[in-house]
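queue> pop job 88
queue> type: inverse folding (structure -> sequence)
queue> payload:
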């Protein structure tokens, strides 16, 4: 089965690839924004924002939380690539938020759902949609407080941090106000 899937993926790449002049330069890597998005296959940032390759620096982790590797990647985007906008992109029906809401906070999922479980404990009456929103806002605050280039740039207003929720049914984004992020953070 996996062999068939692999061959299908290779065939799709071959069909989509365009002939390249051997003397042509690689496309530039000058992203205008970085996106910290969930790993969910239904949430492809380049498609959601209708951007060509090279336009977005995308970090994906289930639950769109600020993991150490994710933070290091975003630090690179800010310090080396000069990105001035980071978007934390959550989505409706997030499985990591569902797991946290259900109390599945231990075991192999803990690195992913741990921060969301903490939010769920702090907001026991929050429904799934509210938990997803609170998670995006919490991640933004984590980025702002980060000791690396992302946090330094955000605190000095050299980096804009934005949050949005992608609706899986409509395909539309709902932007989140980050004005009160600091007051909502633990």
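queue> result:
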């Amino acid at each position: 089965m996996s062999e068939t899937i692999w061959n299908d993926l290779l065939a799709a790449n071959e069909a989509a690839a365009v002939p390249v002049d051997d003397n042509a330069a690689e496309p530039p890597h000058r992203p205008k924004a970085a996106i910290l998005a969930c790993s969910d296959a239904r949430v492809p940032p380049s498609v959601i924002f209708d951007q060509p390759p090279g336009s977005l620096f995308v970090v994906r982790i289930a639950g769109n939380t600020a993991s150490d590797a994710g933070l290091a990647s975003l630090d690179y985007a800010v310090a080396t690539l000069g990105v001035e906008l980071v978007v934390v992109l959550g989505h409706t029906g997030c499985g990591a938020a569902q797991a946290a809401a259900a109390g599945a906070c231990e075991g192999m999922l803990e690195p992913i759902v741990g921060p969301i479980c903490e939010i769920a404990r702090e907001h026991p009456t929050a429904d799934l949609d509210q938990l997803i929103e609170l998670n995006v806002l919490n991640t933004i605050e984590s980025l702002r407080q980060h000791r690396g280039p992302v946090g330094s740039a955000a605190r000095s207003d050299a980096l804009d941090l934005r949050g949005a929720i992608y609706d899986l049914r409509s395909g539309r984004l709902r932007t989140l106000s980050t004005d009160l992020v600091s007051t909502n953070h633990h």
